[in-house]
Here is the input.
Amino acid sequence: MLNITAMDSRDKNAATVTVNQFKALGRYANYCLEDEEMFRNYIISLKKRDVNKINLPKIKSLLTNSWNTEKLIRYTSDNFNNHSDGFVTQWIFPQAYYSVFNSTLAFFKVVGHDEYSHVEVRKKLADIASKGKYPNKLCIWGDGAKEGMKVHGLECDKSNFQPLSLLCDDMNDIQCHIHSFVKTTREIFLSEKRDDINIKKLFKNKNGTPKTRLTPSEWQTISDKVPKTSWLCLLYRKRIKANYQDIDTFLNIDFELSTLLISIVDLVNILNLVNEINIYNSIGDRLREWSVDRFDFANERIDKISDLFKSN
Here is the structure.
């Protein structure tokens, strides 16, 4: 018999964990946003590419797509923030993902990276972070198999961590929630790879039947086929869950919609800022020309970027 009470409890807990994860991400994003020295050091490390080698119309198109989507996210945050507006969460996660994805594509094309597919872009971005070629406090990624999995770039004591509560002014607790988000996201990706029909063929019992339980070394084989897990992977995971798997979670009456939306705005803001720093590094104030009449939030970021470059 279907236990409705148990299902409602699971949905409520899942909603609480999701909100806490994004509240933590939003708090962490704003914490990083205030660190101008971090951004100045990052700018010093960048190499400028000859603008004549850059497809400017393509960059403009990708950024316009990103900014239009971010504008919709911000409009949603400002105008849909009551419990009865929970339906908007089904699409806010895909919107956040696609805004950052298109901005990242623009960044990649400016610097000469060829990656274009969702898998390739997520993998490349994680590789960039793992090599320290991203603002240092944002160099966060996960790797490894289910046993021995590691999340890099965060220093937190997880001994008292509670996923159903968040201490909003405690940076240790904030980082614990992000650590958990990266870890569980990687676990999901590993399980999905484990269920791939071509992977199942690799692991069989002596009688030729597929294994139901894998050894640590077999999980490591799977891990070697799964790229590192980073920021964009977190948004990709929620994009899939919101669209196809956990719709009821986001319609839960106890879902903190307003808090969630603000946190997503803050996360998208800093990830797009990093991409725009890379773009500005090579094309300069052309970036402002594309945003000036339509996107106030992008203008504010470009003003910040311009000031950072001038201070170096």
Observations:
- The radius of gyration is 20 Å.
- Confidence is low (pLDDT under 50) at residues 1-7.
- The first strand starts at residue 141 and ends at 143.
- Residues 4-33 form the longest helix (30 residues).
